[in-house]
Design goal:
Blueprint (H helix, E strand, L loop, with lengths): L4 E14 L6 E2 L2 E2 L2 E11 L4 E6 L4 H16 L9 H8 L7 H22 L3 H4 L7 E7 L7 H13 L5 E4 L3 H11 L5 E4 L7 H12 L5 E3 L8 H11 L3 E3 L6 H9 L5 E2 L8 H14 L3 E2 L8 H12 L6 E4 L2 E2 L14 E3 L12 H7 L2
Parallel strand pairs: 6-7, 6-13, 7-8, 8-9, 9-10, 10-11, 11-12
Antiparallel strand pairs: 1-4, 1-14, 2-3, 4-5, 6-15
């Protein structure tokens, strides 16, 4: 008898964190919490699967479930791997990305979790088998607005905790200089500028200034992020490796980015590209075009576990982004935790762990 979806619940969480610095202001408010949207799917055999949608789009993604997705998904087979692509096509006039696809991404992750639990196998096995048991992680620091005190303190803290790669979220050359001095010449240093510049000339001047400090990559230097032609021009003009992709959702666009030489490191977000199904399609497209698939992982819930399984199963090894701050409670702390800059791939059924009841009860909104 076919096992079907019987219920879909959305659970919003706001978990406080400490960045060891004054909170950065984003979207007009001080960033003091990590915003999460978990997706809890119940199957007709009683098994529960967990997914994660884009937390920053929580209100919009919940509306997508409430008004469209739930009525289309309930009653469908949990084994049907064509379900999410079919729903994407069904609702294509409402989305080619954004909250609808974020919601479907969460649903997709939960369905893979259920499939793994039914089979008694980790998701990485369902994806073709884990090709590595551990992943290297890099510390993804918060934005300190080029404050040298916080840059020095927190890059040093990352090294003390065993990380051997560090990423900044900064826009100024001086910030990169401070970080490089703090970590020394041999630690790989990445710089995420969050689409800081709107012209190729501005970006070229800034990246050439950062080049002296040997960045492994410069991430999202240009706005809009889909201006692949200018990104390719910046890469050629500076000779610095580029990274981009967290705001791109289509496998075709990722393939085009890679084939035209726009970026060396392409960074899909599992909470935006269609979940595990979308991530594996995108990774194949990227790596088939000769670039490196190094996902954006700015979340810590079931989506985080899902990325670990994808990175374990895909052909080429990639580092795992690890948000670097102190959370009031870290999800899955007993199941997965970076030690000396490495993390073990979960070996339990499905994603390998369920969100803690205490976490949900304490931080649910």
């Amino acid at each position: 008898m076919d096992i079907t979806i019987t219920a879909i619940e959305t659970i919003g969480l706001r978990i406080p964190f400490d960045t060891w610095s004054p909170p950065h202001v984003a979207y007009g408010v001080a960033r003091t919490h990590i915003e999460c949207l978990y997706v809890r799917v119940t199957a007709s055999n009683g098994i529960v699967g967990w997914g994660e949608a884009q937390g920053g789009a929580r209100h919009m993604a919940v509306a997508a479930f409430d008004h469209w997705i739930r009525r289309s998904a309930i009653g469908q087979s949990v084994a049907d791997e064509t379900l999410i692509p079919r729903l994407q096509r069904m609702y294509m006039s409402l989305m080619r990305g954004g909250p609808m696809l974020a919601a479907l991404s969460g649903l997709d992750i939960a369905l893979w979790d259920i499939r793994g639990k039914i089979e008694g196998l980790p998701v990485s096995t369902l994806l073709g088998g884990a090709k590595r048991a551990h992943l290297d992680c890099y510390a993804s620091l918060m934005q300190y607005d080029a404050n040298p005190e916080y840059l020095k303190r927190n890059t040093a803290r990352a090294l003390e905790r065993g990380f051997r790669q560090v990423k900044l979220h900064e826009k100024k050359v001086e910030a990169v200089a401070v970080a490089r001095e703090a970590i020394g010449p041999d630690i790989p240093l990445m710089v995420d500028t969050n689409c800081a510049w709107t012209t190729l000339a501005e970006a070229t001047a800034a990246v050439n200034g950062m080049k002296a400090y040997n960045p492994l990559w410069i991430e999202e230097p240009l706005y809009p992020p889909e201006d692949f032609e200018s990104l390719a021009g910046l890469r050629k003009a500076t000779g610095v490796a580029m990274a981009a992709g967290e705001n791109i959702v289509s496998p075709y666009d990722f393939r085009r980015m890679a084939s035209m030489g726009a970026a060396d490191y392409l960074q899909p977000s599992i909470a935006k590209v269609g979940g595990i199904t979308g991530m594996m399609q995108v990774a194949a497209a990227i790596e088939g075009a000769g670039a490196s698939c190094t996902p954006n992982v700015f979340y810590m819930g079931p989506g985080y576990l899902a990325v670990i399984h994808c990175l374990a199963a895909k052909e080429r090894p990639s580092t795992l982004e690890q948000m670097f701050f102190e959370m009031a409670a870290r999800p899955f702390a007993k199941a997965v935790f970076p030690i000396d800059g490495k993390i073990e791939v979960p070996r339990g059924p499905g994603l390998g762990a369920d969100p803690e009841d205490e976490l949900i009860a304490r931080f649910r909104v």
